[in-house]
Amino acid sequence: MIKHMMGGAHRISVPLPNNPLLKIHTYLFKGERDLLIDTGADLDICEQVLAQSLQQMGVDPEKLDICITHLHTDHVGLVRRQMLASANVMCGPFDKEGDMRLFTNTILDREAIEAYMQYLGLFGSLTKLKIQDMPPGFFLDWSMLPDLKPLEEGAILKVGEHTLTCLSTPGHAPEHISLYDAANRILFSGDFLMSPMMPNVLDFKAEGSSLIKYFAALSQVESMSVDLVYAGHGDIITNPSLRIEEIIAHHNKKLVAFEQITKEGKQTVAEIASKAAWGGGSKTWEQLALVPRLFAIGETLSHLNYLVSEQRIAFIEQAGVVYFGK
Ligand SMILES: [Zn+2]
To answer: Which CATH number fits the domain 2-325, given the four candidates 3.80.10.10, 3.40.50.720, 3.60.15.10, 2.60.40.10?
Structure first.
């Protein structure tokens, strides 16, 4: 379960049951205080694996710093467990009331859900969304999280002889950060860069565009000296530039496909998402399960917002519903 990586980090892979990602990779650095990057979902099996590995590595939770790459439950979930209660937890600056609402306990607020479903045009299958249909540990309850200390762009974390620099890498989540080990030319990328799976770029409102920010972060990282990327899921990336080019090409192709769909006239986000191909072209909307549908909605909106920013399409809001089209 523990793999000793180039550059001195120890990778602890934590299983994610019922999740196509299979597992999350967390990374431990040993020092006077130890540093753990990401934790695992709020599930007993994740807790057992992480606790056992930390014990094996001689980690004292009283002397543990935790850096969370982004506030999705598979990365942050375990910080609410007793075993990590005394750790010092840091993450990128975030907006509790903003884009995170779909992943938090506010989903339990019926009125808010219904207004939001209406806004996206989700009157059909997704309105059957029930908390019990979601995979266990999917939603975060903010009230159960400890104090999260915000880390700004450029913040330096020192642990043992290692120096890590905090980079803002939004797109998959607005608060997403990556940690850069310049001496060893290694990037700890969370879900910002992954292989072979494509990172989702997500918006949940018709404003701004996470995709613009994501492209900017990709080109910033491409210009840096990075030989290895240690991601939150999947494989080690040994050719970061090539992977970045593949990811950019993937999103450009999606932009063209979404633009094509909007030529049929003004439609809701859900209507547009339901006409797109998913799962790398292997799945239709009807074949997507509940959680992949939520990600598909977020991914659709980030691309539509991008097309609006480039004035390739327009959007209007009418009676609490948002529509996109030519
Ligand atoms: Zn993840």
So the answer is: 3.60.15.10
